[in-house]
Amino acid sequence: MVIPDLGRASRPAVGADAGPRVEPGSFRDPANQVFHAGGEVLRALDETAAAHWRALAGSTFFPSLVAAGKVCGTEELPPGAARQLLAADRLGGAEPWPAWAAVLRHERIPFVSHPYEWSYAMLRDAALLHLEILRTALPAGFTTKDGSAYNLQWRGSQPVFIDVGSFTPLREGEPWAGYRQFCQTLLYPLLLGAHLGLDFQPWLRARIDGIEADQMSALLRGLRRLSPGVLTHVHLHRSVQRRNADRSTADVRAQLRDAGYTRQMALATVRGMEKLVRRLDHRPAASHWVDYQRTCGYSGADRAGKERFVTAALTGAQRSRLVLDLGANDGHYSRLAARHADYVVAVEQDPAVVDRLYRTLRAAEERRVLPLVLDLVDPSPGGGWRGVERASFAARTGADTVLALALVHHLAIGRNVPLPEVVACLAGYAAPGGRLVVEFVHPDDPMALRLLANKPEGIFPDYRRDTFEALLDGYGSVDDRLELPSGTRTLYRVTLGG
């Protein structure tokens, strides 16, 4: 199987060293350990997993999924290359390095995100890809042993399945082992939005394993029991779980085989779930932020000057591999940055705004802009086992260029974050020696005055331009600045210290 490039030109993981390092999110499957070594993403397989991989690579369906970009690019390394990349007797003082049967190299995903950072349409498209892959695998005699939303990542607006180790030969008469995970991390969050109008992000962020059937059953009672998917995948699923709580998984599988459960029945179930997921939709309620670019009060001259300044900042130095656009709103500057950078992560706190942006990017088949739902005042923390199984947002950043346009006043005045903390946060999201392009809205700007009107008088005495500039000087050198024609907003380009 020929995998072009495998993304080796993409940005290495922040803080990765040349030695092997276990991916904290892969420890739950000891047969499929993922490592980072020498800037590569590797998967080490035991004897059984290696045999499954070679059967998978020799199948007709798997290479087609890879070629279509639906599964991440993967190749098996020659033994010599694998030994060189994993040349270590010990891993962080742990047990001796095992003798793996095979080592795979995966393409590097430009930026790792978590399902609770996705919009509704993103989660639905991820669920549909998961089901499509399973539907394609079943006739070829394969299934997936997991159904987690964490098995998917993004190339811009394109979802991609990354857990190659999840594929396993299908044993006739056995149900899909990943069904419960799929419900908890994909289907139930979608039902929350479609049937209850609730944003799923806080629910997924609260529990790494997703939403339990008991929780969904309590929410979807009365007439809501008749909503699409609820009786079968919530209430019936809950009853089956309770009825079999004292039985082993092997006993349940044997019972299904004895009852005549077949591959065709499994395939029909997957097709039914696909049909259900396609029907589900949730358009988050419109908010002030949806029309912010139209209502924020920029003149035509201000907009033109701002675009020229940002473009010059992105083109006047080495090309950025990763741009982080904080407070991206409708993604105007994210898309501008994508013309001059390898990849852009567009961060916005409002799920409705991100969902609209994602649908726009998807329609344009944009592969270099990833929109994410994230509140900078409460960003994604580390989660899962020991708080590192899912890396925090701060641990995943390290951008060559950070854009913070029309953002500082919302954090400092709107959210009461002290100005020194705001600047420290923005600078901290950049890689050493990176660039910060930031806009300061003066206290006498109409938007700042609107925010100040809701605050006690005199609460922000240090929110001043001279204070802001002194703070920037503390993190690097201000290489360029522009006062917009309105006279109440100033843009800065800062090269941050190493």
Automatic annotation (TrEMBL):
InterPro entries assigned: SAM-dependent_MTases_sf (IPR029063)
Residues covered by region (Disordered): 1-25
Gene3D superfamilies in the cross-refs: Vaccinia Virus protein VP39 (3.40.50.150)
Protein name as it appears in the record: Nodulation protein NoeA
Species of the source: Micromonospora sonchi
